[in-house]
Amino acid sequence: MYSKVEDRRCNTLQHAATRCNTLQHTITRCNTLEHTATPAFLSKVEARRCKTLQHTATHCNTLQHTTTRSNMLQHAATHCNTLQHTATHYNTLQHTTTHYSTLQHAATHCNTLQHTATRCNTLQHAATYCNALQHTAMHYNTLQHTATHCNTLQHAATHYNTLQHTSTHFNTLQHTATHCNTLQHTTTHYNFFSSRGEASIVTP
To answer: Can you give the pTM of this predicted structure?
Structure first.
């Protein structure tokens, strides 16, 4: 990139080149006059002026060459500026691409976490359902155990009722047997006294 000093120098060289072109045109005219005119025609002053113009023309050629080189450098500087601008734009794009890659990686990681969270929610729901089933099964086992105990108690009660009924029947039979024994004894006693002719019956 050109500095302000170099810019001013280029402008000065361009101005000098323009002036050189004018001088070159004048020196060409002087050369024509020198070849066509006789020596008597040209005064010494004009001859010195022509020599001065020739010297100036040589200097102008040097300046023109320098100006051409300056123009080339200016063109190269412009090209460099374009390349520098392109490089800056490329760096910006590269930074954006890197940032995009980072965001894309973060998005992929987020999707993985979201999928994992969804699976965790499903497992948590299944675990809650399993706990409910387990609680129901424990309650069912308790009820089944209670039903078995109730059946045992009912069977025992039925057996107890049977035994009680048998015991009552047994007491009745025992009472009847006692009564029968009493009657049998009385009959035996009666028969004994009857065979002896005694009228009275002694009650035991």
So the answer is: 0.34
